[in-house]
Design goal:
mainly alpha, about 0% strand
Length: about 110
């Protein structure tokens, strides 16, 4: 049986950067509608798409910024912090100021 991560990586091969960003935006909408676990899922999927040392594309990073910010409001999920930290680390160099702001806010 394949793992969920393998399925998300398979999606990556079939989704453009813009489509990946749309998936994240849709999950953020679900989170805002009252199911905050969707933020965690968005981060986990995005990290699976950018496996290894690969950084997020700029368009995917843009869609993840609100998710990363909103996730800071939910510090009670220690097992999900891993994906938050990983996602911040995968922001591209073009998003350095956002990365710094997120890390300052997290501290």
């Amino acid at each position: 049986m394949e793992s969920a991560k393998a399925h998300w990586q398979a999606w990556y091969a079939h989704l453009s950067d813009a489509r990946q960003a749309q998936v994240v935006v849709l999950l953020a909408d679900v989170g805002r509608a009252g199911q905050p676990e969707a933020y965690d899922l968005a981060l986990e999927i995005a990290c699976a798409w950018a496996n290894g040392s690969r950084k997020f594309s700029a368009v995917l990073a843009d869609s993840l910024l609100p998710v990363l910010t909103k996730s800071l409001e939910r510090p009670n999920l220690p097992h999900k912090r891993f994906y938050w930290i990983l996602a911040v680390g995968k922001l591209p160099h073009s998003h350095l100021s956002h990365k710094i702001d997120l890390l300052i806010e997290a501290v």
